[in-house]
Amino acid sequence: MIPHKLALCLLLICFSQGVTLAQRKPPTGGRLAVVVEERLAALRATPQLNGKLVRRLGRGRMVAIRSAKTSGDGVTFFLVNVTSRTHGWIQREAVASPVRAGDDKSLLHLIEHSQGFDRISRARIFLDHFTRSPLRPEVLLMLGDTAEDVALQLSADAARRLKDSDFTYYLNYTALDRYNRQRVTFLFDKQTKRFHYDGAAWRDLIRVYPRSSAANEARKRIASQVIPQ
Q: pLDDT of 12-51, one tens digit each?
């Protein structure tokens, strides 16, 4: 609990489930998977790296895997449905499926080799879709640690861009928007004009996986956390 007497500003998340559902429904016709590596997410007309580009898919986009085929150069492609009218071939490493053995480990490896917002975004995909993976404690810890690092960077960037602006400009700093959409919340200290991660991922980790080694690390993070005053 954060004491009521602390003079802090809490950046609340404006994450609308209604908006998310309105954007698109999961495709049908195969095993569901999600795009996790957008750099490889070129949807092609044929299972070849030089196949005609149908469209490029963004991170977090859901697809339905219909079949698989390996090209002559050893690259595996999935035939996927994107919508009821759009389908094509996509490189296997571009997507991850909660029902495919080993995909949680592959996604964790990708998260570990990502930084900043990319790491947070991929960690959120993991937590939203891989609900039964035993690797969730590690991902929660990593999400919290990365958010804490991001808070320091956001503070420095905002101070440089906004300088002596009123504190409301900090609370409306546009760089915060994409983190809000990932359900990452920051606290803001009016006196020091610095952002701080609110520790939600660490608290979730301790609550759901209290006996894990990651939870022990999360407790250390919370004990040493700086609370805006």
A: 333 333 333 334 689 999 999 999 999 999 999 999 999 9
Q: Give yes or no for a contact between 189 and 228, defined as CB atoms under 8 angstroms apart.
A: yes
Q: Residues near 39 by Cβ (< 8 Å), separated by ≥ 6?
A: none
Q: What is the pLDDT of residues 91-114, one digit of tens each?
A: 999 999 999 999 999 999 999 999
Set out the domains of the chain in order of their start, with CATH numbers. Answer: 26-96 (2.30.30.40), 102-223 (no CATH)
Question: According to DSSP H, which parts of 77-181 are helical?
Answer: 103-112, 116-129, 136-162, 167-171, 177-181
Tokens 């999360």 correspond to what residue?
A: 218
Q: How far is CA 185 from CA 111, 143, 182, in A?
A: 20, 12, 9
- Residue 225 main-chain phi, psi, to 5 deg: -70, 140
Nearest to 47 by CA among 96, 93, 97, 88: 88
